Task: structure prediction
Amino acid sequence: MRIEGIPASPGYAEGPLFDLNQPPASYKAKASAAEEKAALEAAIGKAVARLAALVETADGDAAGILEFHIAMLEDDALSGPAFASIGSGQPADVAWRAALDSEIAGYEASDQDYFRARAADLRDIRDQVVRALSEDSEVALPQGAILYGEDIAPTRFLETDWSKGGGIALKRGSTASHVAMLARSRGVPMVVGLSALAGTFTGLALLDAERGGIIFSPSPAEVEAFRQSASSFADRQGAARTFLTEPAVTKAGTAVRVQVNIAYPSDVDGIDIATCDGVGLMRTEFLFGKALPDEETQYQAYRKVLEWAGDKPVTIRTVDAGGDKPVPGFTVEETNPFLGLRGIRLSLARREIFRVQIRALLRAAVHGNLKVMFPMIATPDEYSQAAALFAQEQAILAAQGVAHKLPPLGIMVEVPSVALAPEGFSDVAFFSIGSNDLTQYVMAAARDNAAVAHLNSVHHPAVLRLITAVAAFGRDKRIPVSLCGDAGGDPAAIPTLLEAGLRDLSVAPAQLAMAKAAIAGVPV
Amino acid sequence: MSASAEATVLITHAVGLHARPSVKFTKLAKSFAAEVEVAIAANGPWFDAKSIVKVMGAKAPKGTMLHIRAKGDGASGAVKALVDLVQRNFDEDADHVRSA
Result:
């Protein structure tokens, strides 16, 4: 059965389905009793191994208790009833709980205080295995699995080992979500908006993230046809790869700069700097994942990328938290976050946090060709305030004798006010069009909402008119204009963007070759 | 080769055949090839002396007469060693003297 969706990251994946929408800490039942037994065995083994590691560091009394727990866990008499229940159809967690609860009841019924107190040990033993079972279901991701469900958390994406293939199939989701961007940059096939995806599917599935669709329980003929499409896609990618090492040039011989977008400093490890013209967008939200990063952590992250790029420019965007990227301790809860305190607005509201990032950027600037841009600029005053903070911090570093450099300061063009009235920004060093946000704001269509995905198109004349106007303003004022949204790496959008006057695109690393190949076919 | 042995020993340990002593007891029992069983009454029920779950489950407090029986290879050695362990208070006397 094939269900249609929207391709979010091109490619093909053939593999077992893995249901994403399990509560994070609950056990996921397996398909057969044999698998349930294996899961319970593994969980007991894991609990024993953990206790054994604890024994190493525990002192006498504690070690004695831990050894008692280990001996209980290693005793088949404890797990025997659980394995028997599994044999008669119970899932491992239910069977284990029932077996242990019956033991626990026996201890609780004892007339001896000491034995009654052992019920607590039994409960502890029970829970250690339950925990190990649940974790097991979290990580028991078959190799090359197709993760499917309502949506997927970015952390889940990052925890997954994609080196053995696999893909993502989402009922909701969006082609502009952060996971979609990550998927494109890592070359992980992903399809969103599979709205008819209902119920629980298991077994083998075929994910077609080129046209957008997934096939459940495929017939041999479907598998055969799928493999042909996958191999043809790989061939086309291979052909595009011949463009990778060459500078991008259109059919008419016009040079186009193609830079890369990165989200993590480690992203550059897999990229040959010779294949791109620099980093057009380095996001810094990753630094703000769990806690607010200190200056040194930021400095090292920026420096790594600058040194990798050598003479080529690296455009780092100051933190764009808020919107769909909340940061505990930094962002605020809002009913309409995309229109709230996000990007530069938040940085200017929380200057003590912004100043730390500014100092790290000023210090890192001596290690390469740094440019800095501010996200979500709506008025010239915001740019002036942010630039003034750079000047202040620069003066402080100079007074302290700390090595630093003031990088060129530019802005993202993503709020329509900037695209409609760029004349207020003739003193910025450069413009970078964030086509994802510009489109969602122009079309009033949230980019994380599949129900309005059809409105979210960079091809709409209103969006294209603004892009054309900004490109023309930049040419007129000799201010460089680039584009770092997803459209820049989309072979279907590239001709339109070049016709709109753009000559500088920044794309996901995995799209470099296809983007250059697409540019070569454009007659401008 | 169907050797068998049986003995009875009084548990004098303050809290009986509890967690740590039962770990020692079952470990020792497992070191013998013979089939070893324990009971807290002469007529049973008998429990596998190599299973800590069963031994703990017998819930034998201080003052219990513990019945131990074994059959097979080394049966008498097994019973003797286990009786010794119980009589030595599971080698935990030092702890109890200190805490007394």
Summary: The helical segments of chain B are 19-30, 52-57, 75-87, 93-99. Residues 4-95 of chain B form a domain with the Histidine-containing Protein; Chain: A; fold (CATH 3.30.1340.10). Residues 94-100 of chain B have pLDDT under 50 and may be disordered. The CA atoms of residues 12 and 71 of chain B lie 26 Å apart.
